[in-house]
Structures are given as structure tokens and as C-alpha cells.
């Protein structure tokens, strides 16, 4: 029979506080970055719009994770062993926002691919086209977890004090792993290798230098996207390990508590990495932080 109570371990509260801090800092970073992109006209470009989509997706995912951590802390402190009315909604939001986040990387990679492979097809390089793609990804992400509701797959796990799809060899879990992780990551990696092969072929042919340099630049951007995706998934490796374990044996009792630690930490690290890779955003931030230096340089010029 499923447990109706849970023994409160001494490490529960420190871990949940750490998760809360990480997700809160992630939310702060995302909000700042989005405000900069929105308010600074130099950031109103298609690449930055795609970056803003990633930040918005991360913000949504971090908010869902933060609400989950807060609810878990409340349940642990008040010794509540039943789900609250918002429990299923938080699970739904986490799956939807994770979908948005992972596919935002694929959308960025597709944009780089189109620029290099089809430079004359200008419509596919317009803000209008990519806005449609972004809206479709958010629509699909919203519809994607509906399957869990239809199948009744979201259940309350009293040991971990959350509502989630149970681990195990089942259609809902395979569907979740494919939809949120494997498909978008495979798409991004496939695009990267296609670009690598194309750039190598260009270097063997008589091709103008500016075309080769542009292709190499876009290739580096896709490489950054892949590195960010791998960072997010690698730091979320405990969750993946527990999923694989559940196919053959039962996962540890507090698997969701343990897995969510790495996920929340990886979100914050991902924000730092994204900022380091984003030169336009770094330039704007430097201007905001050192306005006097910029004025002096302008006067000298």
C-alpha cells in the first residue's frame, strides 16, 4: 500500500531552501535579461528575440520549480500528507515549461541552420516567421502535458511531497522523456553536425571568405547552444539515472527530491553560461554599468 505519511529527514529543509534560492536567483536573472532586451533598442533583433524566448521559457520553468519547492517546504513543516488543489497544476506547468525551454534551443539552432544553408530564402529569416514558430512551440508545449491529465498519470507522491508522473517503464514516462528531452536534443545535435559537414565542404570548395566566416560564426553559435543544452541535461543527470533505474528496479525513495536539486542548480548555471555566450547582451550590460566610461570614449572619438 502507498505510504500515507512520511518521515521528515534532517536534510529535507536545507535542500529545499537551496532549491528555492537557486530558482529565485534564476528568476531574477531571467527578469533582468528580459527587461534589458525589451527596453534596449539595440537588442531588438531576431537573434535576441530567440534568446528572449529562451529566457522567457527558463523564467516559466523556474517559477514552476519555485512554486513546487515552496509547497514542499510548507507540506514538510506542517506535516501535510495529501495533495493541495494546485498540486496537479504545478506538475502540468513544469512539464509545459520544460518543453518550451528545451525546444527554444532547437529553434535557435534551426535559425542558424537556415542562415547558413538557405541564405537566399529571406522569409525564413524574418521576425514574423520565427514568431510563428515560437508561438507554435508554446502551443505544443501547453498541449503536450494534456496527455498526462487524460491518462490520469499525474499522481501525488507523499515521500517527495509533489505531484508527478511516476517513474517506471510506462507510456507516460517514455512519452515525457521523448517529448521533453530526446527529440529536441536530437534535433539540435543533428543540426550541428549538418553544419559541421557543410562548413568542411565549403572550405574544400572555392568559396568567398565572408561566406565561410559567416558559416563558421553561426556554427559556433550552434555549438554554444548545444553546450548549454548538454549542461542543462548533464546536471539533470540524476533524474535521467532514476528514470533508467525505474525501468528495471525501483528508484530511491526520495528520488524526486534528489533529482530536483540538480535541476534547480543547473538552471542557475545555465543562466550564467547563456549570459557569457551572449556578446550583445554583455555589451549592453557593460554600458549600463559603466555609462561614464562610454561617454568619455564617445567624446574622445
Automatic annotation (TrEMBL):
Keyword Transmembrane helix assigned: yes
Superkingdom as given in the UniProt entry: Eukaryota
Subcellular location: Membrane
Membrane-spanning intervals of the chain: 17-39, 131-154, 174-195, 226-248, 254-277
InterPro entries documented for this protein: GPCR_Rhodpsn_7TM
Keywords attached to this entry: Membrane, Transmembrane, Transmembrane helix
Classification via SUPFAM superfamilies: Family A G protein-coupled receptor-like
Domain G-protein coupled receptors family 1 profile stretches: 109-286
A Gene Ontology cellular-component term: membrane
Name the record gives this protein: G-protein coupled receptors family 1 profile domain-containing protein
Organism of derivation: Adineta ricciae
